[in-house]
Prior knowledge:
This protein is mostly helical and 308 residues long. The chain has 14 helices and no strands.
Amino acid sequence: MFLENVKQAATQVSILYIMVAIGFLCDKAKLFTAKTANAIVNFLLYLVVPCMLVRSFTKIELTKQNLLMFFLSMVLAFVTHFISIALNIPFFRKKNDENPIFKYASIYGNVGFMALPLAAEILGDEGVFFCANGVIAFNIITFIHGAKLMSRETFKINIKNLLLNPGIISVLIGLPLFLLQIKLPTVVSQPLSYLAELNTPLAMLIFGTYLANTDLKTMFTDKRIYLTALIKLLVMPLLCVGVYRLCGVTGTLLTACAITACVPSANNTFMFASKFGRDAGLASKTVALVSLFSIITMPVVIAIAQSI
């Protein structure tokens, strides 16, 4: 059963990374460049991802069990981030320009570009339904703790940006549809589905262009990136899976939690590094190498969650 689960998860991860490789090659061939990706990333974040999240709410039947699982997944999404923050306290403590990058990359995962597509492929709309809360938790915590971690100055929280982000707005739209079991007319639901289905290919192609512009020759030389990968890809997700299983979480919810926890470092690592005057090149190399290792680690973590 475990090996079968590894095979299934590895197949889905491989499919995603084949699209990443296509994005990489398209950038090198100047067919789909980082400039193009940057131009459409807001289209992905502010329209495609919300459509995917809203659609997942319309596909789930309202039952007491599903309602309980949804709110439990919300709690677990925040707990996952809190566990990760606490786990990273002993690491990268020396105050310098680089350690905030490694600490951020060890804590925050690529939930929008990687967890949602992977959940959709492995678990379907139910997985996206649960992983939606991972997007909410990420957006809230990263704009408080993550931004403060990366900032060189005293960081002030922008309440507007905190609350009016795509993840929260999507849930505010989707949750009433789920609770009231509103069936959208075909003229609305079909375009919603078409846009939602753009998420996986667009996210992977964009991710590939980012990797294509990373200095691949030097990213293997920094030992701190290997420690970041170990914490982010194995220690933290396995700890979360173990704790949640001991607390009685099983099935689709446990697998969704595992997917949210085991994805590689967030693209926000180099976005925040650039925004707050950190070494964006180092951040890109860190995300690239952690992402490379995740091809091996994600199937294992997901299979463990499915097997226990």
